[in-house]
C-alpha cells in the first residue's frame, strides 16, 4: 500500500509523539484558544524588596481607637481615617529615555519615594537599581499618593506630578539628562492644597500642551464623615483642571471649564476621547461611601461622571444621557475596547459584592448581587454606555488599581484588577488578584492560574497598579504596590458565612482589625483584635510569555513644534490606536496620561495578534488627524510619529501626498524615524487615502 511521506512519518512515531501530533492535527480545526500564561514576582531577594510603604501620620488616630475598651459601630465607620497606611500609586515611565520601562512608586512622610531604574538596556538583563534621591524625585517630605506623568513642555522627556493629601502636589521637571527639578512653585501648583487621589494628563483645548486633571476628596482626612452622611458635603472638594499656559505654568480653569457641576469624592479619573471625535473627554469614578442610594431614600453621589469636551476645553456633563449614572463605591477608571467593535468601553472597580454583603448590618440598606460589582460598561458606538452583567463570574470583589490590556496576546482586551479596602472593622481581602480573561465578546472568566504561583495577594492590601512590558518580550508585566501586608502567621477569615455562587467565593477573606463583643448583637460594640499589619510592599510580576501568540509594540510621537500644522503633544497622549489583525480581530485602546487608581501605565503599547502574522494599525490623533500603517509584522517594535496629513482629508491627492512626503522627509532629517520606516509610512498613507477616497483612486494603485 502507498503512503504519503508525511503519513509514513506519523506511523513510525513513538506513541507519545503520535498522541501529540494527533492533538495538534485536531486543534488545527478548532477556533483560536489562547494558551495560559503565568505571572511570577521577581521582587523577593532583589533591591525591589527594599520598598516598604510608610504609614501616614493619620494612622496615629487609628491607633488611638485600638486602645483597650469597647468601641461602637459608628465610631469605627466614621472616625477611622481613610487609608491610615497611605494610598500609594505607581507608574511605569522611561524617565531616562533609554528605551526600557522604569518603576516609580510613592511612599509616606519621611520616607523617599522610589524610582527603580531598569537596567535591561544597559546590561541585557532585567534588573533594577534605586535612583530616586540621586535624580531628585524622592519627595521625602510629603505623604505622597497618586502619580502621573507627561511631557509638559514637549522637549522629549517625561515630567512627573506627585499628589499629596492636604498639602500642595509636586511637579518635577525632567532636565533632559534623567535628573529632575522641582518646579511646583513656579508652575503655580503650590496654590492648590487639596486632598488628591489620582491625576491624568491630556490636552483638553487642543493647543499641543498637556493639561492635567486632579481628583479630590475632602479635607481633613482624619475621619470619614463625608462618606457617611450628606451633613458633611461641605467638606467635599471639587476636582481640579489645570490648563498648561506654556513655559511650565498652569492656571486653574476648573470652574470655567465646566467640570465642577457636582461635588463628589473622586477616587480615580482619566482623560480620554471616549466618543472618538478627536478631542479629550473626562471621566471620573466617584464614591457613594456608606450613604444610602436614592432608591433607599438617600441621594446618589457616587456615580461614573462623564464630561464631553466641545474641543476647546469646555465640558458638558452628559452622565445621565450617556447612561453612566450608576451608583457605586467606584474606585478605578480604565478605558479599552472590550467587545472588539472598535469603540471605547470602560471598567471601574467598585466596593464589591462580597464587601457590601459583609457590611450589610452596618450599612442599613439592602442590596442585591450585582448592585456593587466591579464591572465593565459597553459603548454602543455613539457614546452611550450600558452596565454589563458579571455573567459567569456571578459576583466580583472589591478593587483599586486596574488595567485593560491583552495579557495573553490573543487579540482581545482582558481586565486585571487588585485591591482591598480598610473599613476599620476589617481590611477587605476579597480580591486575591482578579485576572479576567475575555472570550473576545466581553464575556469574562476568572483565570485563577495566572497568579497561582506568585505572591499571595490575599495578604497584600494593594492600591496602585501599573502595566507595561518590563523585559521587552512583547507581553505585559504587572507592578502593584500595597499600603499594608498581613503576616503569614495571622488568620485570613472567610468574609461571608454563605456563598454568592461565583469563583471568588473560595478566596473572599478579611483581616480582622476589630472583633464583635457579641457576634449576635452588633450594638454591643467591638474590641481591637490585637493584630497589626506589616508595611506595604512592591510586587513586580513578569509574564511567562510562553503561549506562542503574536504581538506588536507601538510608541507614539506627537510632532508639535517639529512639523507645520501639528498640534499633538510629544507623548501622543489622547490618541486612540486601533489594531486589526489579518484574521479580522479588532481592538482599540487610548493612550492615557493616568488611569487605574493613583497610577499610570506605560505609554508604550503592546497589542496581541493571536495567530495572525500581520496587522493594520490606525491612529486617531488628538485633533482628529488619522494615520494608518499596513502590514505591521508580528514582533515589530514601531515608532509611529504623527503625520499632520489625515487620510480622510478632502485635499486633492497631489496635495495630500506632498504633505505626507514633506512631513516624512523632515522626520527622517530629525532622526525620529529612518528611511525604511518613512517608505512604509508613505506607502501606507497613499493606500489609506485612496481606500478612503475610492473615486480618486488611480487605476495603477496597488494593494498589499
TrEMBL record:
InterPro entries in alphabetical order: FG-GAP, Integrin_alpha_N, UnbV_ASPIC
Instruction: Give start and end of each ASPIC/UnbV domain.
Output: 572-638
- Tell me the Gene3D superfamilies matching this sequence: Integrin alpha, N-terminal
Q: According to its UniProt record, what is one Pfam family this protein matches?
A: UnbV_ASPIC
Keywords, A to Z, come to:
Signal
What name does UniProt use for this protein? ASPIC/UnbV domain-containing protein
- Species of the source: hydrothermal vent metagenome
